[in-house]
Amino acid sequence: xxxxxxxxxxxxxxxxxxxxxxxxxxxxxxxxxxxxxxxxxxxxxxxxxxxxxxxxxxxxxxxxxxxxxxxxxxxxxxxxxxxxxxxxxxxxxxxxxxxxxxxxxxxxxxxxxxxxxxxxxxxxxxxxxxxxxxxxxxxxxxxxxxxxxxxxxxxxxxxxxxxxxxxxxxxxxxxxxxxxxxxxxxxxxxxxxxxxxxxxxxxxxxxxxxxxxxxxxxxxxxxxxxxxxxxxxxxxxxxxxxxxxxxxxxxxxxxxxxxxxxxxxxxxxxxxxxxxxxxxxxxxxxxxxxxxxxxxxxxxxxx
Length: 303
Known about the structure:
Layout: E1 5-8, H1 18-25, H2 31-39, E2 43-45, E3 48-49, E4 61-64, E5 83-86, E6 90-95, H3 112-120, E7 143-149, H4 152-163, E8 168-176, E9 183-186, E10 191-192, E11 200-201, E12 212-219, E13 223-230, H5 237-244, E14 267-275, E15 282-286, H6 291-298
Parallel strand pairs: 7-14
Antiparallel strand pairs: 1-4, 2-3, 2-4, 5-6, 6-7, 8-13, 8-14, 9-12, 10-11, 12-13, 14-15
């Protein structure tokens, strides 16, 4: 159990709500956890249980009694799955847009991992118990092929291939605007946006290395359809890199795309190639473009 915390509000905190004050002073804890502590009486202001909406006067003594969250584990759920490939080592699924890969950030049901546990019973136990078998991820609003490790040995073998860039990942992306060059390469490093923590950014000339290569497949009046290969797997990599050159992915409002009727990102993990952990044979798996993305393309004005 974490020790109790004593905080003091200062004149500079005058007018701040209690929940905002705690987020600023205790950034190591999530917003939902801090709010839960307030709601359960674990935060006292001058000896009295505080409310989230309490407005500070700048002279309070605040006592916080942290509570550990119960350990999370993935649970089996009967959910639809499209299996593209499976053997004794690996499962490849065609993840639907809207499905979260694993639990986190307050989302614990309806995940891909839960569906896999219901179908297969057990997956690789390497790493976090919330995400058994997961060696790479796709954003919730991105669709396409995703690999899952069935055994610990397969998990370690696939992880090595991802780390050494032996896995080839090919996406299809529709971006705003008309790219003039038929192909290009973006190598700007990516890091967390210091002002908007839900975003990543490629504007600070620092962060983790990232390599994105793209090729134009088709041009429309206001959009360009791309084949995109990523040699690295940074958070939001394609979305960040395309936005950084002024061509955000369609449907991606977080990175500057205008409002859309699409209801998801036009970003699809189309193909992946890797070496079978046991067979040592090269395996390539492709996921067809979803019907809603095909329909969206069909409705666009041609070049």
